[in-house]
Amino acid sequence: MRVALRELGYKVEDDFTYPDEMFHAYTGDQHISFTFLERNGLGQIITPGRWSDWPWPEGTFSPETVTLEGVACPVVSAEAMLDTKENMPKHPAGRPLREHDRADIVLLRRLLNGKAEKSAGHV
Fold this sequence. Notes:
By secondary structure, the chain is α+β, with helices and mostly antiparallel strands. 30% of the residues lie in helices and 26% in strands. The chain has 3 helices and 7 strands; from the N terminus they run H-E-E-E-E-E-E-E-H-H. It has a 3-stranded antiparallel sheet with strand order 1-2-3. Strands 4-5 form a two-stranded antiparallel ribbon. A two-stranded antiparallel sheet has the order 6-7. Strand 6 and strand 7 form a beta hairpin. The radius of gyration is 16 Å and the shape is globular. The model has no long low-confidence stretch (mean pLDDT 85).
């Protein structure tokens, strides 16, 4: 994956502090994070390393996939992303919310409120 990203012109962070958890790639103003996932002994999906005690919520990944450049992968639900963003500061390995996290939370809440309104018949 890293080689392919470099060939596409991305700068890949190979020396990230937590290489067993994730890596980042950059090009221009685009930033992509890749998080590694595995199942623990209970069958829960986790990110290894510092986050292994914080399983992803049930339903995080829909059975549907998104295909990008011929690679199909599951996508994190908006509900799970909001849960992660809001609870990151509460985890022992977490960090304070960054400005873009706060902006993401606003957008995710707006998206989810819009979904709730549509499903209730309010458009």
